[in-house]
Amino acid sequence: MRRGTASLLIGLTLALAALAAAGAAAAAGTASKLVFCSDITYPPEEFYQGSKPVGSDIEIGTAIAKRLGRTAQFDNTGFDGIIAALQAKKCDLVISGMNDTPARRKQVDFVDYIRVGQSIMVKAGNPKKISSLATLSGKSVAVEVGTTNKDFLDAASKKLKKGIKVVAFPKDTDAANALKAGRVDAYFGDSPVVAYYIQKDKSFAFAGAPINPIAVGIAVRKGDALKAQVQKAVASMYKNGSMQKILAKWKMSATALKK
Hints:
Blueprint: H1 2-31, E1 33-38, E2 47-49, E3 52-54, H2 56-67, E4 71-76, H3 82-87, E5 93-94, H4 102-105, E6 108-123, E7 140-144, H5 148-157, E8 165-169, H6 172-180, E9 186-190, H7 191-200, E10 204-221, H8 226-240, H9 242-249
Parallel strand pairs: 1-4, 1-5, 7-8, 7-9
Antiparallel strand pairs: 2-3, 5-10, 6-9, 6-10
């Protein structure tokens, strides 16, 4: 009986050790990932090619994770719920063309990495003769829900005699498609996104010059030590030119932060 008990104890000890090792390995595997929440419907910053996420933000996030000794993972998350997802710890960071605004800074911290203006997109030939915010008076304009683009148009609408009919869509690509289908008079979004749509589809065109340039940041939970690590990674990428290279690849060189 003593021999049997000893064997049982040894076996139990080995089993517990194996479970502990498996748990440690699983924890290490989780820790090695840097999970980004991203609304992957916003070309050229984040979009799908087949089932693969691509774009400037995807490459920037991947490069940051590598500098932190981790592997990037991008979880597709609706933009209107993306901050809530970060706060609920469904991801470590948000990289999704998110403007760094005072309202958002009340909820999260930011590491700024580019600066982007906003643009109006119309159908080629500009049949509605739109050339500025003022000429959007009485017009319908498509935007993505939950964005500062929508907030900006809502505020601008109040200053115009006829106002702007702001039509919000759950995905940015849906907003662009609404213009293509003639369901709205214009689309409003970040300038690099407008440039991408126009490059891919000659039925679209710019209307007027970019407006309201604003910093775009990677969102981090308040008090999270990741903020300092990401700041260091972004500074390193600007210093060695890798950030500029990514932005140039996606025709976004004008968005690089100035020294």
